[in-house]
Structures are given as C-alpha cells and as structure tokens.
C-alpha cells in the first residue's frame, strides 16, 4: 500500500517538473523572440540616426525602452541622437543609464566629453580621469585626452595647470595681470621667446621680450633676454641660431620712421646688443610689424599699412639680399601679397612654414568662426597664392586667435588666444604630428533677395553654432549684392536668421558635412517676403519633446527672434500654425500640432506679446510643403508656420 502511494507521489512530482520545464522553455522562447524584435528595432533606429531622421530614431528607442528598460543600446543610440541635436542634458541622462546597465570605457569617455561641452569642468575631469585608467586608449585619443585634462585643470585652477598645452604666465605664477603674445621657438626647440604686456591701464609701459625654457611638464619663464630690449606686443622672429640675429617690432622709438618699425638685434660677446632699425626700404613712415622669414632666410613676410595696401593692415613681403659692410640688411622693394589674402580689414601675423609653401596669417574679415581667425595660404613655386583656408576647430574658436608659430624640431605649434576670456590673451600649444587634428571647415554664401522684385537686399544675417552654450554668434550685413560669406565647422548644427525692416524674417538650420573652399562655397538663396496680409514664414528651429508639446531648450534662439519681430511690428496680428509629417495616427497628429502651436503662443505671451494679437491652430499633416515619402521631405513638413492675419 505504501509503495502505491509512493509511486503516485512520484508521478505527481514528475508531472509538475514537466509543466515547469514547458513553462520555462516557453518563457525562454518568448524572451528570445522579444529580444530579436528589439534587435531588429534598434537596427532601424541606428539607420534613422545615420540618415539624421532623429525623430524616427527617438520614437523607436522609446518604444524599445517601454518593454525593455534594460536595453543598453537604445540608451546609447538616444545619447548619440541628443549629441547630434546638441541636447547635452538628455545626452548625459542616457549615457548614465547605459552606464548603470553595463559600464564600458567608451561610455565613460563620452560622459567626459558631454560634461566638457556642457561646461561642467570638474565632472568632465572626473570622467576623463576614470577613462585614463583604460590600457587600450587609441594613440590619437591619448594626446586629445591629455589636452582635455590639462584644459580642465587649468580652468579649475589657473595656478595649477599641469598640461603642456598652456604656458603659465611666469615662473612663480603670481602675476595674472598680463597678456602674452607672439611665442617664437628657437631653431633647436629648446627656448621660447615671447612678448608680454601689462593689462594695468595705469601702466602705459611697452612690453618686453621673455625667454621660456621647458622642463617635463611646465614652462619656466625667466627674465627678459636683455633689460634694454623693450617693445610693443607685435612679434619677434629669430633669423637663425647660427647668425645670432633676432628681428622684432618696436614702436614709438626716437629712431623710428613710423609708429612701428621692424628692428634687429645681434647676440655678440655673450649678450644681446642694442636694437637697430632694419632700414628705410623695409620700413616706411607708417606701420611695419610682425616679421617672419622664409626657411632659407631670404624672404621676409610682414604686416604694414604702407602706401599700396588694400585694407587697414596688409601682408607684404620683401627679399633680403644680404648685409652691407656696415652690418645693415639689404632689401628689395616690398611687394603686397594681393587681394586673395588681403581684404578691406586687417590681415596680420604672417608665418611662413618650413616647407616654404604654407603661409599662416590672421584675418578679421575673411570668413571665420568669430572674431579673428587663423588662416593658411598655399604658395605656388613662383610665390603666387593658390588657395586660402581657415585652420578650423579647435585652433579657431568664437573668440579671437592672434598668431601661430611653429617649432621645426619638436613638431609643436604655438598660438595666442583669448578663449579663456577671464584670463586675457594667453599662449597655447599643440602637437602637429600626433595630437589635436584641426577639423576642416565649410564655407557658405548667403544671397538675400526680395521675394517679389528679386532685387538684392542689404540685410542682417546672424549665424549661431548651437553646440556652444554661449550668447556669442557671427553677425554680418550683406553687401550691395545681397551677399555675405560664413565659415562653418563640420558636423555642427547651425541656426541662421536673416532680417530686414519691412520683411518677414527668415530662419533655418544647417549642418555641413563636407569641407569646401572659399572659391566654391555652399550657396544659400534666401528670399524675404514683404510684410503683407497672407504672408507666411516657416520656422524649423522650434523643437519639442517626442510625442509631446513641451518646448525643448534649444528652441530659445528661434523663439526670441519671433518675439523681437512681433515687438518691432507691434500692429501685426498673426496665426501660429503647427504642422506634422504623415507618420503616425492622423487624429493624434492633428491634436498634437494644435497643442504645440498653443505652447508657442503661451511662450510669446509670457515674453510680452499681447494675446489678442495671436491665434493658434493645428493642421496635422493636412498642408505638406514637401513629399512625405522621403526623410528630407518629412523634416520640411514638421514645422511651425507664422502667417500674417492683419
């Protein structure tokens, strides 16, 4: 009897085990199918990201995360999307979520980059420090990482900068009230000559030449090479270590021919002698400065506003034929470099590279990233200019860059910049061979016309790099032909607007993908509509959260343009229209577009525009302006429209 009961019990246990196994296998199968579906979806999201269909990528990733909140790749794709959209807070959010699921080195580095872009320097340095423990950092990234970490340390504490890409102001680092200019390395790369001038307005003293000697991590800035050599901050040039001659600029001296002249000084009997004017052929009665010799010490490039200049300051060249019996340099008559380099503004700080082909200089008129930028001109065999290029980011920024010099030994380039605005003008450096690679740039020419008459308009054009969390932007007025040229970083999102009294303003965005030249820029044909009833303008820089009517922060510049336009045209009444593409449910699109247009009206009212001047309407996908069959067309259809009612 006991045996029968035992057998029945055993059978029941086996049956339970069987059903458990069936349930487990079923769960595994469902899970596998679910994971396969998520994998297929994430591949679609990555494809959308490649096509820059960011809305589609966001929608798919959010769909995945609803059922698979631990799906790390969805967070990584969203982080890449928000990086492309310059939404750094959302990028950091998803990088952190990906890191919580499974920390990997690339996520750590991207967090450092994101916090650096955001301006949270201590947090950026923390992640850079963590990443530096990685034993397999690519070679090119090693130097970039070192520069970023040094930049972070300098920003956190300017008195404890441990990087080589910034030169401390002096040996004891106690005097922060000076500007440093024109770093010039000696031929052996072991010394750096530069000029320093006080920012103290009560001291109208000229600058002095200083020598800097590097050790393993810092530059020890010592005394001036000669207490008698005092000059303005306009550049020095060592002819060679063998000839022991140093050319430099001195201003307002009694033996000068103009306000600033080029002088030279010899090193003899263990000390520097007295400065001597370089002569009447080279120096005029006006301004000569910033000498730079070609590698064979034959051609001198310099800055001058002498007779024959095309702008305020031009770049000139003069051939050195030798030295006379009296020790004076002998020169051929100087020549202007021509209109391809020189403009109506200031072209300064020439430097001819050791290859005798690349001529670096500074311009405040040629298309740049803001302020003064560094450029390079390509010289042909006969000395003619064949091409001019902007040096690109990160050498050029939205602040001023002043000059560049290079060491023929260490492969190091030095330049001065005001990028750390609170620190004044300071000297920076980077390695030419394996360090920071400058990003090529793109050029764009805006051509502005009246939509009805097709006549060119002199209009204000504003360009803003949305990756920079600053209030700085490029702004120019188009010329008599309605044209203006801009320089753009690649793969950065730019918003530009065009405005002129009596016209609806124009705005759009662009993200250049390929480098081009000033001779072959991207041409933007822009037609402004006269203000009249029924006139419309399409706005593409107002962004909303996915499937939401909450306005994203990067919409602020566009909305402020709209606020300014309505305040400047106080009698206008307008309709704010919301439009979508054909993706999704038509009823939902209609509802969402109406909510979004109301959000814009709410913003305008909050910023001082009377409600009785505003009407909001949602049109969903009913009024397309492009085909919904392509990603580009769908992007054009997702917009906010401003229509003049009365």
Low-confidence stretches: 1-6, 24-33, 157-176, 201-207, 212-235, 433-437
Into which percent range does the helicity of residues fall? 25-40%
Strand content: 25-35%
SS field, number of helical segments: 10
Outline, from the CA principal axes?
Answer: globular
CA(first)-CA(last) distance: 100 Å
Radius of gyration: 32 Å
> Total number of β-strand segments?
33
Account of the 3D structure:
By secondary structure, this protein is an alpha+beta fold. Helix content is 27%, strand content 29%. It is built from 10 helices and 33 strands. Strands 1, 2, 3, 4 and 5 form a 5-stranded antiparallel sheet that branches. Strands 6, 7, 8, 9 and 10 form a 5-stranded antiparallel sheet that branches. Strands 11, 12, 13, 14 and 15 form a 5-stranded antiparallel sheet that branches. Helix 3 packs antiparallel against helix 4 and helix 5 (105-118) packs antiparallel against helix 6 (121-131). The longest helix has 49 residues, at 2-50. The chain starts with a helix and ends with a strand.
Features:
alpha+beta; 5-stranded antiparallel sheet; 646 residues; 29% strand; globular
Task: Give me a quick take on this structure.
The protein is globular. Mean pLDDT is 75; it is low at 1-6, 24-33, 157-176, 201-207, 212-235 and 433-437.
